[in-house]
Amino acid sequence: MHGLIHIVLKSLVEERFGHDSWQAICSELGIDDDSQILQLKQYDDAISVAGVVATAKVLGVGAADALKLFGEHFIRFIAADYMRMLKSMGDTLQQFLINMNHLHYSLERTFRDSTFPYLEVTNLKTNEGGAVSFTLSYSSVRKDLLAPVIEGALPMFGKMVFKQDIAMMRDATPVMGCDVSWTVDTKALDANTVGADVEQHGQQKIGDFVTLHSTLVAMFSCCPCPSQTLDVAVDLVKAEPATTVSLDQMVRLSLPQAVQIELDDLQQLVKQSNEPAALLMRGTPASEVTADWGLAEQLAQAAQFWNSNVGAAIDYSRSKPTDVATRFVSHSWSPPSNWQDIMGSDCCYGEVKATQLKLFAQDIAQKEGCQWTEVLFWIDKCCIPQRHPLMETCVGLIEEFIKRCQGITVMFTWEYFTRLWCVYEWASFLVFIDPTDVDICVDVFMRPASQKLLVESVAGFSLDKAQCYRESDRAILMAKVREYYHSERAFEDFARGTAVALLALAGCRKASRGETEHEDNFTSWVELADRLGYSKLASALRTADPRGWRSIAQGEGGSIGKSLGSGSRVWQQHFSELMEAWFLREVMPVLKELKTTAVRPEVERLSTEVKEERMDKLISIRSQSSAAAAAAAAATEACTPRQSCSELANDADAINVLPDPLKHSTPQVSQDLLRIMGRVTESQPRRGRSVSKGIFGQVVRRGRRLPVD
After folding, report:
1. Per residue in 33-56, is it b (16+ CB within 10 Å) or e — as a string?
2. CA 605-608-614 angle, 5° bins
3. Greater confidence, 163 or 564?
4. Domains assigned to the chain
5. Model's pTM, two decimal places?
């Protein structure tokens, strides 16, 4: 466990029982110099457990009482540094506990080697005088071992953060599926009651929030302290509000001359090509457009990218040419009109998209057996040349780009189905991509206030309600629907049915964590299937058993240890396999029947050909990648050193190809931009001309060469 636990333990003992008691505990541990266990680093679990046992022995209390004292003191200890963060997680104690559950779910997806506890708030009642009571239930792979810590921590937390007196009575019988349940009664305290309870531990600072939550990860999930960045909301950097402009407006925006020339050359090639989509197909590495909550600067940059559809040359340079992208990202640039009312005034739409895509890149990487940074997203702002007439060409090729993606990731808000181009993408990918390759990002948008909105957005979907900048765009959508589907009604039925199935699948993992989560994230979609008349789909969905799958996956091998530490990755993978096997076995046959009813036969035959062609390209890409890696390794020692990034950053010719606003940036910024833009120009003589990879890595033919990298 983390050394912070030992620091808090020492603070507790010395404050409440005196320095001699701490010395006696150190003697029990066989430690002469306590600095050996008081560093902010990871220690063996055995040391921490022995410390708790020794504390109980010296103080003459039971282990449960020692843990309860620790929980109470831990809150007092951290409050001096983290009161602002603690208050930001909810306006009431109940909201805080629910948000902790969402946090643990997100952490469980981020830290694949960890298993986090589950908290459930039920039976909420407001009594006379404003007092509130509820049932708090807790489940963990450690069963009730750490329940005393909560019994100490929660009353102190309520007192210090919410100025409430909290009484907890452990119930004789826990809520079904949980390890411990308490009846919790709260009542307001005088505002001046809590001031003296904050522990002033000035000489021993905890550090940042990453350190704090690393301690909680270690304590509650029994896994090594993760080395990767925590995906946790801390002090959110305020990003600019989301803005969008029309395609016509973007095309009229100006470009630096060098970029304009490069794109003009590319446009000429596209006009001469029989396969323009092949020339224009690109993918954006996940690392270019995603971020962790814990990295404020990176998060602010990613949020700025996602908060506006207005792009520049630097955005196009984030992507690179590819035959096949990993996922097409379908989303709306604008947040729902009531976003802040539903999600909160401090919740930034751009930040949510950036952090959620990072999680999905990790999910995809685990499934594909690659690094998450290798996942390539097709994102219009990066993969379509901004501020150039090629934009209109690319928009007309959206369907072709979808065909060249292995799957699609949908940012599904409660207004997704009201955006015309989102509907267009949905109509296209339902034809050319299997439902098993569709990732629905909805967890983060699933709040108590948004649950009904999400359900009703699917129930009330219709083509007539789709909104667009230009009414002429509606004709494009309707033509596509008539081309692919037997009728508009057939498409709407297929779209709604598929949405219900995919949203239910997306809710399975979260539904596995408890009864309330199951009701909110899964049962509501089963009920909607019944309401809309999809009886076969409703029957298929009812065969799901997310909580049973989780139990089977965690209990594999008959040992709790299988669900802890490195075993967590194993059980999470097993859970995914059980969930996917169920979907293929029970739900896919129903969706295939819906598709057969809705889609024209000739389009279905075309869909099969597209999938086979995409698979052939993937096999070819992987084969070429293996061969290229072997050749590169063999040629490494023979290569002459390339011009360094620092030299390039000071190269006037190199700087001149950057967008105008960045020409006079610092050497470090220029160095980073040049690296991102991938300015490798490989030239060969060809009839007095050169064939080069320009500033965007695209092969173009020109009568001159750019500066060679």
Report:
1. eeeebbebebbeeebbebbbebbb
2. 145
3. 163
4. 3-221 (3.90.1520.10), 486-598 (no CATH), 647-709 (no CATH)
5. 0.65
